[in-house]
Automatic annotation (TrEMBL):
Top-level taxon of the source organism: Bacteria
InterPro entries, per the entry: Methyltransf_11 (IPR013216), SAM-dependent_MTases_sf (IPR029063)
Entry's Gene Ontology molecular function annotations: S-adenosylmethionine-dependent methyltransferase activity
Record keyword Transmembrane helix present: no
Keywords from the named record: Methyltransferase, Transferase
GO biological processes: methylation
Sequence ranges assigned to domain Methyltransferase type in this UniProt record: 69-117
Protein known as: Methyltransferase domain-containing protein
Length: 253
């Protein structure tokens, strides 16, 4: 995936996603944030949380001297309910067990913490070309357009997974509507499709972008937790005053 991002379509996709992450995470507040995977996209660079980490898989490498930690996506070295934000740039589709990765994200997020996910859309021109290329490869022809690693996870399928883990989808969008072309020259010729795609065929963008919030159901108290003490029935009590006259009163309870 990292090598593919250096190709013309990879740079086109990376630029769109970088802008999408920048505009989204800048308004998410807290103390601890984690980007899991794909260091070529600096998904947290516009976020202002004081503690931000880049988590990489054992087979990934961070370019330059960016500080990072190495961890399996299904076993993150963080306590439960400790992170305010987790961003997953293509991390689920590149994971060997995307279900386990998403469950681990749910574990480490605080209640009302947010996860931001990007992924390749199988219902797009890019997805169609990838499926066609894989079919031809089985016959010994051609090569794949998208990275060989990873599998498509559709936007609707992802939303179902999030719902099962008590996430609430807060926002979603698609991007990159240009055809699956390999050269920068031909990609530039179809720039007009980006201007029209969001309005006329939004769900066919090559990439989707989802923001979800972790919801924790509260415990509902049945009835009032405090019971008023019952009033004791009292009878008149004779009281002798200084004049040796007998009066009656009721004790206050």
């Amino acid at each position: 995936m990292q090598q593919w991002l250096d190709t013309p379509p990879g740079r086109y996709l990376r630029d769109w996603e970088q802008a999408a992450f920048d505009g989204t995470v800048s308004d998410i507040f807290g103390y601890h944030a984690l980007q899991l995977g794909l260091p070529d996209i600096e998904a947290l660079r516009s976020n202002r949380m004081p503690h931000r980490w880049l988590g990489l898989q054992p087979d990934e490498q961070a370019r330059g001297l960016r500080p990072h930690l190495v961890a399996e996506s299904h076993a993150l070295p963080f306590e439960a309910n400790s992170l305010d934000l987790v961003v997953l740039p293509h991390s689920l589709e590149l994971s060997l067990d995307p279900h386990a990765t998403l469950r681990e994200v749910e574990r480490v997020l605080v209640p009302d913490g947010k996860v931001v996910i990007s992924g390749l859309n199988p219902a797009s021109l890019w997805g169609l070309r990838q499926r066609r290329a894989r079919a031809l490869q089985k016959l010994g022809f051609g090569h794949e357009f998208l990275p060989e690693a990873g599998e498509f996870i559709g936007s609707r399928r992802l939303r179902d997974w999030l719902r099962l883990l008590n996430f609430e989808v807060e926002a979603g969008r698609f991007g990159c509507w240009r055809p699956a072309l390999s050269t920068e020259k031909w990609l530039a010729r179809y720039e007009w499709m980006d201007r029209l795609g969001e309005r006329w065929w939004p769900i066919f963008g090559a990439v989707y972008f989802v923001v979800a919030v972790k919801r924790v159901r509260g415990v509902r108290l049945m009835g009032s937790p405090f019971k008023r003490p019952r009033k004791m029935a009292t009878a008149p009590v004779p009281v002798t005053n200084r004049g040796h006259k007998i009066q009656h009163r009721k004790d206050a309870t």
